[in-house]
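call fold(seq) -> tokens
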Amino acid sequence: QVQLVESGGGLVQAGGSLRLSCASSGRIFSNYAMGWFRQAPGKEREFVAAISRTGSSTAYVDSVKGRFTVSRDNAKSTVYLQMNSLKPEDTAVYYCAARITNILFITPRDASAYTDWGQGTQVTVSS
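ret:
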């Protein structure tokens, strides 16, 4: 099991930027594919982005392509989500998730593929 702690959320105006971080501890971070999900009030949890163990492969939901960038620093056991050109519809609690895997390049989009989750960080975008 890996422990995940998100940070970096907050209140920002539309068009602004935020950088979320997710720090991991407890296991070898580079053995995990990592994902970001979000959940808005009254809505189901939604896939946002994923990154492979080495960082060479990434995946995004269409609504954030060109605005969000997922990256990781395995030496720091941390995954990031850089969010630019934020919109009010990006308002949600953002969660990072981890999946241990032997496969270097997978970027799972299904929440059920992940075994460990952080507590979430609130992102609020005002219009």
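The radius of gyration is 13 Å.
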